[in-house]
Amino acid sequence: MVGKEFNPFLFYSKQLQTLLTEASKQKNPALWLYANDARTPLFMLEGLTRLHKKAFDEKIFDKWNKRFKKLEDLFGEIDQYLVLETELKTNKKVTTEVLKYFNVNANNFINKCNQRLSEKEWLNKKLISFDEKLGEFNVDYNKEYIEELTFLLIDEIDAILSFCVECDYQFTKLEEQVHELRRKLRWLSIYAQALQGLIQLKKSTKKPKYHLNYFTKDVLNSPYNKLPSKPKNTAVIEFDSDSFFALSWLIKELGKLKDDGLKTEKLSHAIFILEDITELQAKEKASVILGFKKTVEADILKQASEILKVALSKDKILDTLVIS
Fold first, then answer.
1. Which SS3 state, helix, strand or coil, does residue 294 take?
2. Residue 320 confidence (pLDDT) above 50
3. Which residues of the chain form beta strands (DSSP E)?
């Protein structure tokens, strides 16, 4: 995309290419990239291409969005199994066989990731072709460009709210509803970082009634909520700072619920495969091992429904996020 002095795409492409170049010298590139947080620039590039493929009818954004997503998904799988294995090692109720199951799955995805890195030539300066294609576009970061992105952000927000209304904020599925909603909410936060200053926070003169509920120390001090400074000679999108911090809180709370649900799901699946018991018995056993109630899934769905209804329907934090 345009501009020699300022280019969000090239900013993260350069970061990722530096990591890929170093990874090419390692015995286990995938594990090295995972350990050195290659997911962050991948997330940013996925977010940028995701947003721009909707704004511009160009194949490059759709094509590279799929490429970034497939690679990032593999790192996500690696993360799930490695984190769970590490956490469960300290739990005396977890058997050696279960720990081995998580270790084997982690290594399987590490191998798949290494295979993809090799077959798709990620380690052989693949991103150069991405950078070259971007150079063919001449887009000014002006009012018209910003208005197009703003329209798409509002469209995504409307889609999130419509989905919640259709469900009447009574969610019954963890993956298809709660986890997917969190992903969509998280993209709004990722865009704010990925656009490298094209989104700026503006303080509202009126403090919302929900001020104390959402403005925790974790939220206020989060590095993800400190956005890059405004670039020179560009138009910007303005986000209401109170709404943005509230969004951050919501993503964080849903993340905690997601983690509890994911741990239960992954552990119960391992137990079901390794032991001669039913899926229901495996779920109950996993809940006990993790110190959760047997109704953990229903409890998570109930809590998620409640906090989403308060944040999005009562406090309307998304309605006020984008300042038009």
1. coil
2. yes
3. 199-202, 237-240, 322-323
